[in-house]
Amino acid sequence: MEAINVGLLGCGTVGAGAAKLLLQNARVIQARLGAPLNLKYVADLDIETDRGIKFPDGVLTTDAQQVIQDPEVRIVAELIGGQTVAKDLIMQALDQGKHVVTANKALLAKHGNALLEKAASKNVVLAYEASVGGCMPIIKTMREALVANRVNAMSGILNGTCNYILSKITDEGSEYEGALAEAQTEGYAEADPTLDVEGLDTAHKLAILTALAYGVEINLDDIFVEGISKITPLDIEFANQFGYRIKLLAISKDRGDAVESRVHPTMIPFDNLLSSVNGTLNAITVSGDAVGDIQLNGHGAGMMPTASAVVADMVDIARDLLSGAKPRIPLLAFQPDRIRPARVLSMDELQTHYYFRFAAVDRPGVLSKISGILGKHGISLKSVHQKGRKSHGSVPLVMLTHHAREKDVKKALKEIVALDVVTTEPVLIRIEDKNNTDQG
Q: What does the pLDDT read at residue 440?
């Protein structure tokens, strides 16, 4: 029985988890694969720290080249992270004709087009299920299960740290800073949480999914990104009163001659399944012309969920190796010659519903001034609410709009903030519901 030798580059959280699965679940993996999936090497600069794993003799090495250059290693898993050393090692492994598995969404979002082109030129696989959604099989779903569908739209919660923080604010009334501190204490947020809370991690994942959905090149640079650091318990309370939850959403839509691709805090109605996804869970809804809406949810990060996706990719590759099949599934879901550059819709062109909150002086005529400016810019109001107690001479003035164009909204808010009756910067949160799926 032919064994398939694999090597891991990196033995941090995910690397250690993958090693643990390959060693502890070797029998069940072999029973499903039909051959041993043999962990030949684990390369890491630190091979002295006890990771709670009993490695066979000769498996641990500090030399990544030992993994890449060994002709017996058929599959290499890059689990180092970052965009420099990791990229170089992946390129070297591909040049050696090895299949590569990675969980590195930041690298794929920035350099995925070049890496996937290299893999295709070498007729090998670059697999990346673990890069988006952890153990949620969204990559496999997009590349295989939905192959007969024209994907129209996607929206998802793709960062467990942000979802945990927003859940804390929603359920317990915590302030943002306190919820973040608790997330850090629980190990859900890094000491420097910028990548997560400012939406950048979510944008990396959305760049990959948008390419898979519509047959376009990976394009991170044009994605609009806004984080959750300005979300307050007051806005979450108002959202709840209006029948909405606030989530950090990754949103992508096919607009024919362009695609939407944006990440920002979003109000979604209670009957949207994503509104009930709480804590560190991830979830994504995909809309296809044949299947309608489908949703996947699960743990989007963590040692074992992510490691599970890494090993699953290894098994998929090993099955092809055992059968002698060439890579069967296009790496980016579409045949390489059908992948096109696509214009990402600018936020100025976006049309959606909006939530505004103004801190306004409590005096006659204030509402007419603000609504007059909005009307001048073609923004009609669905409802207006003066809620909450007066604070420092101001009261919260909350408005929900009908469809409006973002370009017009920006112009109107610029005028409104200049009014002497408005005491702070307005709060703007975009709304996604069943009534604003069309752009006009």
A: 38
